Amino acid sequence: MGGYLTQDPAVEKWVRMRESTAKHFAWNARNVRTVGILGLVIPGALLYLAVATDGQYKWAAKGPSPKAAPVEEDA
Fold first, then answer.
1. Which of 37, 35, 13, 36 is nearest to 24 (CA)?
2. CA 21: distance to chain centroid?
3. pLDDT at residue 59 above 80?
4. Residue 2 — very low, low, confident or very high, per pLDDT cuts 50/70/90?
5. Residue 55: which region, alpha, beta or left (left: phi > 0; alpha: psi -120 to 50)?
6. Is 2 helix (H, G, I), strand (E, B) or coil?
7. Which residues have a Cβ under 8 Å from the Cβ of 24 and sit 6 or more positions away?
8. Is the pLDDT confidence value at 60 over 60?
9. Residue 40 has what DSSP assignment?
10. Mean pLDDT of 57-75
């Protein structure tokens, strides 16, 4: 069962880059597009749907209507 671990240079390079992403990050068109879609468009669409459908659905079960008490008028 025992064996040894072989190191793959490609995996090691990926691990080093992953550990220091802040040094290697740069804003480019792809990053801006990704942030725009994931950070603005999708939440904006969800907000629009939430506002547009607010109050349209009755999720509570409909129970018996309450009986109205007679109104006493002071005349």
1. 13
2. 23
3. no
4. low
5. left
6. coil
7. 17
8. yes
9. I
10. 73
Sign, CA dihedral 38-40-41-45, equals: positive
Is residue 36 within 8 Å of 43, Cβ to Cβ?
A: no
The residue type of 19 is E
Domain boundaries, the chain: 27-51
Per the structure block, which two tokens stand in for 35? 């942030």
Q: What is the mean pLDDT of the chain?
A: 86
Q: Which two tokens stand for residue 29?
A: 């068109």
Tell me what pLDDT residue 43 has. Answer: 95
> Are the C-beta atoms of 44 and 37 separated by less than 8 Å?
no
Structure tokens at 34: 């990704």
Up-side HSE of residue 30: CA atoms within 13 Å toward CB?
2
pLDDT at position 45, please?
A: 96
Write out the two tokens for 32. 């801006």
